[in-house]
Give the backbone structure.
Amino acid sequence: MSRMRSFLVFFIPFIVFFIYFTSNNEHNSSSANHMQHDYVEIPEGNKIPSVNISVNQDMSGTWLLSVDTTHFNFAPQKVGSADPSFNEGHAHIYVNGKKINRLYGHFYNLDTLKKGENEIMVTLNSNNHGILSYEGKPIMSMVVVDNQK
């Protein structure tokens, strides 16, 4: 009986801490969503970046995300900087509301998508990970892909 009690005294706090820390990790893809990062409001006088995306199935059957930006440069070497940036940074990719990865360039292979409609969204993010916004609206692009296969 004392062995069982000793085990439970160790095991229960371990499980509680494990669940707490894994659920609060901002880079844990299972808990990621687009509200996770703060917004970085672009001040007047700066060029306002924009993003447009398209998603097409390639000949291998996987889906290719193409990202076109204006007034925005990808700067992977500066990711994590504490200071906000307004015209450089990286992007975040979401599929059906779930963050799947960061993006440091103009193309990303989404691999396969579930059958039916899939919402693909890309946000432009400052080097400090905040979602860039202008006049309170996030700078993002979204398309719905209908996967019939």
Remarks:
- The helical segments are 2-23.
- Confidence is low (pLDDT under 50) at residues 24-35.
- Residues 2-23 form the longest helix (22 residues).
- The chain has two domains: 1-31, 32-147.
